[in-house]
């Protein structure tokens, strides 16, 4: 029998003569990690992994672990699959990532691979997804192996479209944008907090050379009352734009660390808007914790939590519903 994921399951060893008797049973579990091969990942990109177990034994947990100090990670578990996103990777992100199956804290099995990040961003486009909230932030990398005299960041398809330019000469901070002092090779751009309108293209140039191209897609979630006189609550998740490959939005109701998909939709570039809404007829105690997950090519790109509260801040009260986005990065 081949070592295929589909061959996992229960196997029975039987005595067939003189009578049929079950001698013993075996349970075979299979792991599947995506991507299977880990190349060198682009500096400043968001790196997504998933680890799927054919079935989850009762009392066990499946989780991603990282050696050393973890970077800013997003994790999500559903359908026997644990997803992880490591945001804006750099050399500090290098190291081993383990997908571990544990029972009561005891390791039963693990599978691992090693993360390696490239050292420069030279004209390497990346797409980043970030939540828009008061506590969110994003860092866009721009780094070269060679020395340059000047550096600048602009937003838009061309510098002419950008209302302001952050340069290494005299402008290291504009509104919510900031950069450290340029040291001839490295000029990252930090944006905090991230607002929904910040979505778009950011370009970094060293002298006149395009060094970094970042497509920032922002995500916002909200909760609001339904029609007057009713008890319904409307959850809304929206992305600033969809470019190229389709994006899947999914609303998940959280039960502890496990998500249950309530609704999902595939969004394409040609659609007039990029939103996914869920209407709850009334707010129940098991409907307070939600996440809007963003997938591209079946890989998690971002997950934005939304916690609902009732009047007076008490959970489960079908009165005034207040969205309370939690920091997801």
Automatic annotation (TrEMBL):
It comes from the Eukaryota. SMART domains: IG. InterPro entries: Ig-like_dom (IPR007110), Ig-like_dom_sf (IPR036179), Ig-like_fold (IPR013783), Ig_sub (IPR003599). Residues 18-116, 125-222, 230-294 form the Ig-like domain. SUPFAM superfamilies: Immunoglobulin. Gene3D superfamilies: Immunoglobulins (2.60.40.10). PANTHER family: IG-LIKE DOMAIN-CONTAINING PROTEIN, T-CELL SURFACE GLYCOPROTEIN CD4. This is Ig-like domain-containing protein. It comes from Oncorhynchus mykiss (Rainbow trout). The lineage of its organism: Eukaryota, Metazoa, Chordata, Craniata, Vertebrata.
């Amino acid at each position: 029998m081949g070592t295929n994921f589909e061959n996992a399951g229960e196997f029975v060893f039987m005595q067939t003569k003189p009578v049929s008797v079950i001698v013993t049973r075996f349970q075979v579990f299979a792991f599947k990690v995506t991507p299977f091969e880990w190349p060198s990942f682009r500096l400043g990109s968001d790196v997504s992994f998933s680890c799927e177990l054919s079935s989850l034994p009762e009392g066990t947990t499946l989780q991603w672990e990282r050696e050393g100090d973890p970077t800013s990670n997003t994790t999500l578990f559903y359908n026997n699959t644990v997803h992880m996103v490591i945001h804006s990777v750099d050399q500090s992100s290098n190291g081993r990532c383990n997908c571990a199956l544990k029972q009561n804290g005891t390791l039963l099995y693990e599978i691992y691979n090693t993360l390696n990040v490239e050292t420069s961003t030279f004209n390497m486009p990346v797409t980043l997804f970030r939540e828009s909230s008061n506590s969110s932030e994003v860092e866009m990398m721009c780094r070269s192996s060679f020395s340059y005299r000047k550096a600048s960041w602009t937003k838009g398809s061309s510098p002419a479209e950008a209302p302001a330019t952050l340069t290494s000469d005299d402008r290291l901070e504009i509104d919510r944008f900031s950069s450290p002092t340029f040291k001839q090779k490295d000029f990252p751009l930090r944006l905090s907090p991230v607002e929904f309108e910040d979505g778009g293209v950011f370009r970094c140039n060293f002298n006149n050379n395009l060094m970094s191209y970042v497509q920032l897609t922002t995500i916002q979630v909200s909760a609001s009352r339904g029609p007057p006189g009713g008890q319904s609550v409307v959850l809304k998740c929206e992305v600033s734009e969809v470019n190229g490959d389709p994006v899947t939005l999914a609303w998940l109701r959280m039960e502890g660390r496990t998500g249950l998909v309530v609704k999902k939709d595939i969004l394409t570039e040609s659609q007039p808007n990029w939103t996914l809404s869920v209407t709850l007829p009334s707010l129940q105690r098991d409907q307070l914790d939600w996440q809007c997950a963003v997938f591209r090519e079946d890989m998690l790109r971002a997950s934005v939590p939304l916690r609902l509260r009732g009047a007076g801040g008490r959970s489960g009260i079908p009165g005034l519903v207040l969205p309370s986005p939690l920091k997801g990065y």
